[in-house]
Design a protein that fits this description.
Number of helices: 2
Largest sheet: none
Helix content: 55-70%
Low-confidence stretches: none
Oligomer: single chain
Strand content: under 5%
Radius of gyration: 15 Å
Length: about 55
């Protein structure tokens, strides 16, 4: 896993918020949002990307 110091400022702030302030409900919502965003981005970057099957 990459070091937090190497990440953009927005990621650092998000991680700090998750570690210090987020409630359980907020963590569940953040997880859903991140999982969906990562899934969508991975599909775009996939070598066998087939736009006809969306």
């Amino acid at each position: 896993m990459t070091q937090l110091d190497d990440q953009p400022k927005s990621i650092k702030k998000a991680i700090r918020y998750i570690k210090q302030d987020a409630s359980k409900e907020q963590l569940e919502e953040i997880r859903k949002l991140l999982d969906y965003a990562i899934y969508k981005r991975m599909r775009v970057l996939a070598p066998n990307n087939n736009k006809a099957t969306n």
